[in-house]
Amino acid sequence: MHELGLCDAVVDAVLQRARGRRVTGMRVRIGGHPVDAAVVRQGIAMAAMGTVAADAEVDLVLEPMHVRCAGCGATTPVEDHRALAACPRCGGIDVVVVGDEQVLLESIVVERAEGDVSPWMPSSC
Fold this sequence. Notes:
It is built from 2 helices and 6 strands; from the N terminus they run αβαβββββ. It has helices spanning 2-18, 37-48, and strands at 23-31, 57-63, 66-69, 75-77, 95-98, 102-110. α2 links the parallel β1 and β2 (57-63). The two termini are 24 Å apart.
């Protein structure tokens, strides 16, 4: 279950950027990984327990993996396991997975630290 390691890494990045300030939200983009959104949200919540990111809202953006068919040239999103074996458009079996696999912490929302007078913009990695 690679989602748990992914969730630990996301929370580690959030905590590093928060620098001790309470985190109220985060936006995470996952591309090309076949993950279950509910599992990722739960994993982030578990990894954040007892930290300044506990109970933070998670805005999760999932971008599906894609396959390209050598036969018809179509590039289509993988919506189920069958697309990994045959082109959803023409049924051809000469398909390859294309695109980047990425996990990106796009932003975090933190409470202002006491005495902090400068505006703080969300951070992305």
